[in-house]
């Protein structure tokens, strides 16, 4: 191999030769292959045309439900704090609560501060040891200083006590 020989792949959008790491594997095809456009171009498209990107993402989800669910599960495993954050943001929107949390505000302890049971992510579904974000003062929203990570079991217990 000579130095002049390009290693990698040519992006069909910007036309640049880039290292393989600038492309991702398409897992939706039976014969796994690399995407034809580089990460940078794909990201650019996403920013310039969010509506198309959203439709495509939806379409992909419907055609590859199992792959997506598996991927989401892995993501949750990798970053449970983000997962809790997104859940809280969704609930805040739904119930019109205040929300100003960032990923840094969510600290997941090893053990539930209420019941002392170990906190761990559920494999695909929630169980009593799953970490969950709880509001200390339920009249306030998901705001900095008002949230604590407890086990789902504690949360259910708390709900029963209050109702
Ligand atoms: Zn490109």
Q: Which terms summarize this structure?
A:
5 helices, two-stranded antiparallel sheet, binds zinc ion, Herpes Virus-1, 163 residues, 6 strands
How many domain modules?
2
Count of DSSP H/I helices = 5
Helix and strand run: EEEEHHHHEEH
Bound ligands, named by name, code or SMILES: zinc ion
Structural class by secondary-structure content = alpha+beta
> In percent, how much strand structure appears in the residues?
5-15%
Just give the CATH class of the largest domain. Alpha Beta
Widest sheet: strand order?
Answer: 1-2
CATH architecture of the largest domain: 2-Layer Sandwich
CATH topology of the largest domain: Herpes Virus-1
How confident overall, as mean pLDDT? Answer: 86
Q: How many strand units?
A: 6
Distance between termini? 73 Å
Rg over CA atoms: 21 Å
Q: What is the helix content? A: 25-40%
Quick synopsis:
The protein has 163 residues and is an alpha+beta fold.
Task: Give structural notes.
- The chain has 163 residues and is α+β, with helices and mostly antiparallel strands.
- It has helices at 39-48, 50-63, 65-78, 80-94, 152-162, and strands at 9-10, 17-18, 25-26, 33-34, 131-135, 147-151.
- Helix 1 (39-48) crosses helix 2.
- The longest helix has 15 residues, at 80-94.
- 12% of the residues are buried.
- Bound molecules: zinc ion.
């Amino acid at each position: 191999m000579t130095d002049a020989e390009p290693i990698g792949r040519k992006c069909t959008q910007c036309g640049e030769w880039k290292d393989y790491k600038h492309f991702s594997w398409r897992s939706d095809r039976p014969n796994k292959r690399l995407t034809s456009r580089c990460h940078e171009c794909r990201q650019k498209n996403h920013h310039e045309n969010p509506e198309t990107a959203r439709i495509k993402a939806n379409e992909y989800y419907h055609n590859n439900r199992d792959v997506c669910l598996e991927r989401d599960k892995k993501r949750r495993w990798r970053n449970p704090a983000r997962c809790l954050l997104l859940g809280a943001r969704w609930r805040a929107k739904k119930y019109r609560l205040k929300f100003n949390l960032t990923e840094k505000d969510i600290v997941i302890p090893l053990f539930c501060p209420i019941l002392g049971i170990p906190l761990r992510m559920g494999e695909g579904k929630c169980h009593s040891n799953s970490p969950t974000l709880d509001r200390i003062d339920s009249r306030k929203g998901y705001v900095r200083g008002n949230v604590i990570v407890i086990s789902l079991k504690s949360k259910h217990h708390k709900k029963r006590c209050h109702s």
